């Protein structure tokens, strides 16, 4: 049997499970601390009574489905490696890989595939932000001003930018601080990610346009200079 053999195929199998055992299992399967606690609370809730023959049938079905996942996961891994190897041979990989989102995987290749390599395709970072749906739409009519979510956009680009924003939370100091600031203002997780994604698109546009790598320290220094200029302007 493969590693996908279920450890707890039935509700009865969960009965003797302790919280320490659950945490050990969750860490082995790379669950986040929040997700581990959330699932543990669900597991401790009373289960609806189900006839034994139904439990046996559903447990067998689950094992069959998990066995089918093995070749699918292997095929996906092969696709990922092929994409990663192909992208590594392209000049764009030299600067795209410098984004703080991990050096491997398909996020950077997907992002650059959506950006394209046609010179002048993106007139400005605002053009790129609008295409990715990272900024809202503002409509004015007389004295009325309405701001709403941008539905018309490149959905694939929006998704990969959200992924870039999410992955950057682990490695980028300013990205984490900006995301936390957005959440502190009452914005939901996805709203905060979109706002962070809009910031990243300004940087990504420069990287794409000038074909230069990302430098976290340079960006932090730039943010500091901008903040000082704003304070001086306010004082003046």
Q: Keywords for this structure?
A:
236 residues, mainly alpha, two-stranded antiparallel ribbon, 11 helices, 2 strands
Question: What is the radius of gyration?
Answer: 23 Å
Number of helices: 11
Classify the oligomer.
Answer: single chain
Number of strand segments = 2
- Structural class, from secondary structure content? mainly alpha
Q: What is the strand content?
A: under 5%
Low-confidence stretches: none
Q: What's the average pLDDT?
A: 88
Distance N to C terminus: 72 Å
Q: Can you write the helix and strand succession as a string?
A: HHHHHHHEEHHHH
Spatial strand arrangement across the major sheet:
1-2
* Major beta sheet summary: 2 strands, antiparallel
Instruction: Please bin the fraction of helical residues.
Output: 55-70%
- The coarse silhouette is globular
General description of the model:
With about 240 residues, the protein is mainly alpha-helical. The protein is built from eleven helices and two strands, in the order αααααααββαααα. The chain has helices at about 10-15, 20-30, 35-45, 50-90, 95, 105-115, 125-130, 155-170, 175-185, 190-210, 215-235; strands at about 135-140, 145-150. Strands 1-2 form a two-stranded antiparallel ribbon. A hairpin with a 2-residue loop joins β1 and β2. About 15% of the residues are buried.
Explain the layout of strands and helices.
Elements (H helix, E strand, L loop, with lengths): L10 H4 L4 H10 L4 H11 L8 H37 L4 H4 L10 H9 L9 H7 L5 E5 L2 E5 L6 H14 L4 H12 L4 H22 L5 H20 L1
Antiparallel strand pairs: 1-2
Helix pairs in contact: 6-8, 7-10, 8-10, 9-10
